[in-house]
Amino acid sequence: MTSQYWDAGQAHAYHEFQYHFPEKALAGDNGGLGAATFALLAGEGAHLVVVYRPNRERAEALRQAVESSFGCSLSLVAGDVASAGVRLAYVTATQKLAAPLAGVAIFPGDPARVAFENLNRETLLASLESNYVRPILLAKEHGTTIESSTDGGNVVLLATMQALAVFPSSLNYAAPKAALVHAARILAQQWNRVGVNVVAPGPATVGMATASALSGKYDRHVASGAVSRFGRPETSPAPCAFFSSRTITSPVRP
User: Fold this and answer.
1) How far apart are CA 244 and CA 68, in angstroms?
2) Contact (CB, 8 A) for 217 and 43
3) What is the pLDDT of residues 132-156, one digit of tens each?
4) Is residue 2 part of a domain?
5) CATH code of the domain covering residue 145
6) Fewest CB atoms within 10 Å of the CB: 1, 167, 240, 254?
7) Is residue 253 part of a domain?
8) Is the sign of the CA dihedral 53, 238, 92, 153 positive or negative?
């Protein structure tokens, strides 16, 4: 069964990295929300370094689409951010940019769809690693780098609506994401020059939520008005891009 609210043409456009952002809207993952956020930041003139795994072909397609559309450079770093070596390569790549590191948007994760009766130590630990440990380690290293800069900057973490509201069968995925939300509050107190924010999107037509939205899982919520519509990549990444580009000019503490 396919969702009655699914727009196949629109989904295909997003797969090809074709977005329709309002011009200069911010003035003054597999092609999901991460890719749309990169495109939005590129349109604002940002220099981008993107870590990806494992699809090199898809990452190259994103790079070509962003560079041809916005005339900017996008550097790629391959690997799993769980590896200290990959995180170091990421930091090294940002140091080669023409400007200091101003922000990092951290989108790694895994939907971790496991039926309740199949939950065990291994599945719980795997989800915790993907949805909490990796993003926190990356946030720690980049936040520390930004803290040492003169102007400071921002760290943006991606959670989910399931971290904030109770959804059946979401235990394996939602709990680590809820921990991520709380960790962001702690990190915000860790640094003086680094803003820390979390974006928790609902069901969208791109990224990890695609299969659930396409299957009709959320149709009854759309029909009832509880969810006004599926999230779109032109709108959902806007908070991520806003928080990533916002400059911290006054430290919280001297």
Assistant:
1) 22
2) no
3) 999 999 999 889 989 998 888 999 9
4) no
5) 3.40.50.720
6) 254
7) no
8) negative
